Amino acid sequence: MRLNRYILQDICKNTVLHIFLLTVTISCLFPIFWMVRSSLMTNQTIFVDHSFFPGQLNWQNYAEAWVKGRFGIYFFNSIIYTVSVVTGIVVVSSMAAFAFSRLYFPGRDLIFYIFVAAMMIPLPGSFVPLFVMMNKLHLVNTRIGYILCMINVGLSLSILLLKTFFDKMPSDLEDAARIDGCNRWQIWWHVALPLARPALAVIVIYNSLNVWNEFILANLLLNDKTLMPLQTGLMAFNGAFQVDYPVLMAGLTMTAIPIVVVYLMMQKHIVKGLSSGAVVG
Q1: CATH code of the domain covering residue 252
Q2: pLDDT classification of 272: cutoffs 50, 70, 90
Q3: Do residues 188 and 98 lie in contact, with contact meaning Cβ atoms separated by under 8 Å?
Q4: Domain limits for position 95
């Protein structure tokens, strides 16, 4: 009887847990489904037809969004910005975190705490000094200026995550690499980075999403429309008196696809990181 009672309790707990997880999953996926559904409707039916699947699929919205929003140019710009910024953040933050974790030099802790404190400053709070500095460096309305600013935005959190990971790295691995003749650079490249792949996957996903969806800083630093990122193209569907919602939803769907692809590519590294992170600890 007692065994049956324990089994019944486990079944109830698992049932409640699965119901909760299913509810959370539906609440997260339903807005995405509704966005894709709305992108296949027309302005006449989007507020009238409340069915889950529209009777007539209007694929023309995607072609109109691509042309009207000039998505070709903006897609190219966003890809350049995302790849450049994420690469810069991974390289700089991994080297800085490795230095903060494994090297000893005067002011190490103070510099690290300054980086951590920078996360407490909201990005709009630094717009004025950032614009003044970029203007003095003649980097306003340039790709390199925007890329450098976005790298700076993502450094603090990335350094904090990687330093925490490197702190847990056994010193025996570093000593073994040093005995094999590796210098600091080789230890960072051949030992530290491979072990930090789970943390790097999180950093890549987080910063890719941040750069891909960024809009405010681009409008501050960039004046040339040919240099604007993808989110600028979505503003073309917002008129003075009306909004073309189906075309806007089509544009949102197209902007979401690359981030979903990046997440699916990095997902296995995050899952594998649960076990590899435990080994490192």
Answers
A1: 1.10.3720.10
A2: low
A3: yes
A4: 69-280
